[in-house]
Specification:
It contains 10 helices and no strands. With 219 residues, it is mainly alpha-helical. It is globular and about 55 Å long.
Length: 219
């Protein structure tokens, strides 16, 4: 299970989830399948953070696609510009910046880790990003457990996700745990990689939302 395959699984499950949310709200099977996506994206974000050769470019790319995707996200889900819910790229960008400030590799930031976490939770909540503060906790769970032995890592991740899901969201979110076996078999390899392919995974997000919006308008 390489990075490419995990990205593909996350993308497909996310599109299925969005299809269900937009066209078939009464069919929970779509939402169950879709719960797999965010844990995989959280894991890949953490891996990307540790392996990127240019953090600023990585962060900039996430932020640009967050801005570009927001209009498509709003119209696909709400049929108008809506400030009460921001797309998943904002969540990933905020998670990336949280890891960066917590690492504080060159010592330039004077913020304590608890302060960074508090600010991330406040921002994710009041900016209404997708998954809100739960998304930050998911990302940090993968971040802090990354170097643990495999069994301990996945036991910790499973418990954290189980508890957070039970405490703050519906039972459907427990299907997010199904992402862990997929991540377990990750082999650390990238798989097929080139700039066009890398960009296509980013473009697929606003593109499928735009197509769903057009379909919804035609019904």
């Amino acid at each position: 299970m390489n990075t490419f395959i995990l990205k593909l699984i996350a993308l497909v499950s996310m599109i299925i989830d969005h299809y269900g949310a937009i066209f078939h709200e009464d069919i929970m099977a779509y939402r169950m399948i879709g719960r797999i996506a965010f844990p995989i994206y959280s894991f890949l974000l953490v891996e990307g953070y540790f392996h990127t050769s240019d953090f600023k470019r990585y962060a900039k790319r996430l932020f640009i696609f967050a801005l570009v995707s927001e209009v498509f996200f709003d119209f696909a889900f709400y049929g108008k510009i809506y400030l009460g819910h921001q797309n998943i790229f904002f969540t990933l960008f905020l998670g990336l910046m949280t890891m960066h400030f917590m690492d504080n590799k060159d010592g330039r930031y004077k913020l304590k880790k608890n302060t960074v976490l508090f600010l991330a939770i406040i921002l994710s909540t009041f900016l209404f990003v997708d998954y809100a503060f739960m998304g930050i906790i998911y990302i940090l769970a993968f971040y802090y457990n990354r170097e643990f032995p495999t069994k301990k890592k996945f036991l910790n991740l499973g418990l954290i996700m189980l508890i957070i899901n039970l405490a703050f969201t519906s039972l459907v979110q427990q299907f997010s745990l199904l992402a862990l076996p997929l991540i377990y078999f990750y082999n650390g390899k990238l798989g097929p990689k080139n700039k066009a392919l890398q960009l296509s995974f980013y473009v697929a997000y606003p593109l499928h939302l735009f197509l769903f919006y057009l379909i919804k308008m035609s019904l």
